[in-house]
Amino acid sequence: MEKQEKLLLIVNLHAGMMKIKAALPDIIDLYCRQNQDVTVYTTSGKGDATRICRERGMLFDAVVCCGGDGTLNEVLCGLLPLENPPMVGYIPAGTTNDFASSMKIPSNLLEAARRAVCGTPTPIDVGQFNSRYFSYVASFGAFTESSYATPQYVKNALGHLAYIIEGMKDLHTIHPYQMKITVENQTWEDEYLFGCVSNSTSIGGIVKLSESAVDMRDGKFEVMLIKSPKNAAETQKIILGILTHQFDGEVIKFFPTSEIAFYSKNQLPWTLDGEYEAGSTEIQIRNLHEAIQMRI
């Protein structure tokens, strides 16, 4: 008889439109029929998934995360410090599900649940942001705050539209950040409206990158830096560049790298996988090549 796999199922019942509440019994039934020894843990607040993974992750053969991008971030932050992290599965139940979109994980919860235990084990890259981790994006600047400032009840009611509404409310407050940025042997210093270090074809469900530009297993990130426009022509270049994926290298820089450093005079907020991160005046980001195994 095939050996039973010990599985920890971590569930954020409040993620996205809360569809997981209705689907959870069927997911547990599926895993029992797949000969999984299932332990279910429902999160109760921020940092809970990280804590349970750090404390108990080594006791399981696999950990399946059911929630949004933020919940997956917490799971990875708890598992990566372990000496031998278990296999990871992901059931995307959040609002935007950028990571799942890039990995082509089904939006159907039961199909995603099946792949989380029966899918192909695939090594993927993970980002390190100073002492923290992220699965697909670290960003600062314009619209960044809307991902974590939008109240959960608004996300549940309006879905992805909630992020757009919250971002529009912040238009009048957008201001550039003076940054020094170092990549390999190059250094730039300028004012930037937005910056992101990503490993995804979708960022916030708004910025889209072509699949040919993104490989989540190549040991590199894709970096986008948008400079503060000095006139209407540069503003138009920015808008057109984002819509058409034509980055001119001047107002919008776009390039791959495995390491990058950001320096600022004042501490500015960042987001990691859509969740608030206080950041600091010095940010070191590097790609941890194939750091975790996921069933896809």
UniProtKB/TrEMBL annotation:
<dbReference type="GO" id="GO:0046872">
    <property type="term" value="F:metal ion binding"/>
</dbReference>
<dbReference type="InterPro" id="IPR045540">
    <property type="entry name" value="YegS/DAGK_C"/>
</dbReference>
<dbReference type="GO" id="GO:0008654">
    <property type="term" value="P:phospholipid biosynthetic process"/>
</dbReference>
<dbReference type="GO" id="GO:0005524">
    <property type="term" value="F:ATP binding"/>
</dbReference>
<dbReference type="InterPro" id="IPR005218">
    <property type="entry name" value="Diacylglycerol/lipid_kinase"/>
</dbReference>
<dbReference type="Pfam" id="PF00781">
    <property type="entry name" value="DAGK_cat"/>
</dbReference>
<keyword id="KW-0594">Phospholipid biosynthesis</keyword>
<keyword id="KW-0479">Metal-binding</keyword>
<keyword id="KW-0460">Magnesium</keyword>
<dbReference type="InterPro" id="IPR050187">
    <property type="entry name" value="Lipid_Phosphate_FormReg"/>
</dbReference>
<protein>
    <submittedName>
        <fullName>YegS/Rv2252/BmrU family lipid kinase</fullName>
    </submittedName>
</protein>
<dbReference type="GO" id="GO:0004143">
    <property type="term" value="F:ATP-dependent diacylglycerol kinase activity"/>
</dbReference>
<feature type="domain" description="DAGKc">
    <location>
        <begin position="2"/>
        <end position="133"/>
    </location>
</feature>
<keyword id="KW-1208">Phospholipid metabolism</keyword>
<comment type="similarity">
    <text>Belongs to the diacylglycerol/lipid kinase family.</text>
</comment>
<dbReference type="InterPro" id="IPR017438">
    <property type="entry name" value="ATP-NAD_kinase_N"/>
</dbReference>
<keyword id="KW-0547">Nucleotide-binding</keyword>
<dbReference type="InterPro" id="IPR016064">
    <property type="entry name" value="NAD/diacylglycerol_kinase_sf"/>
</dbReference>
<keyword id="KW-0418">Kinase</keyword>
<dbReference type="Pfam" id="PF19279">
    <property type="entry name" value="YegS_C"/>
</dbReference>
<keyword id="KW-0067">ATP-binding</keyword>
<keyword id="KW-0443">Lipid metabolism</keyword>
<dbReference type="InterPro" id="IPR001206">
    <property type="entry name" value="Diacylglycerol_kinase_cat_dom"/>
</dbReference>
<keyword id="KW-0808">Transferase</keyword>
<dbReference type="GO" id="GO:0005886">
    <property type="term" value="C:plasma membrane"/>
</dbReference>
<keyword id="KW-0444">Lipid biosynthesis</keyword>
